[in-house]
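1st attempt posting a full record on here, be nice pls
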Amino acid sequence: IDKKTVLRSYWKKLIAQALRRGDELSNKQIQYKRELQNDIRAFKIDVCNFMGDFIKNGPLVKGIAPMEAVDRLSRFKEEVKIRERKFDLYHGGEVLFALP
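the predicted structure (as C-alpha cells):
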C-alpha cells in the first residue's frame, strides 16, 4: 500500500467523522434553542410576577415603617440583580440563535 492510498483512506474517515459531528451538533443546537425559548417564556412570567409582588409588597406600600421599607428595597434590589443577570444570559442566547 502506498502513502497516497493510506492518506486517501484517512481523509475519507475524517470527512465521515466531521459529518457525524456536524449532525450531532445540529441536533444539540435544536435542543438548546428549545430550552432557551422555554426559559425565556418562564422568565417573562417570572418578571410579571416579580412586578406584581413589588407593587403589593415593595417599599412603596403605604403604612409600613421606614426601616421596613429600606429592608424591602434591599431585598428587591438583590432580586433585580438576579433577573438582570438572567436577562443578559438569555439575550446572549437570543443573539446566538438569531431569535427575534
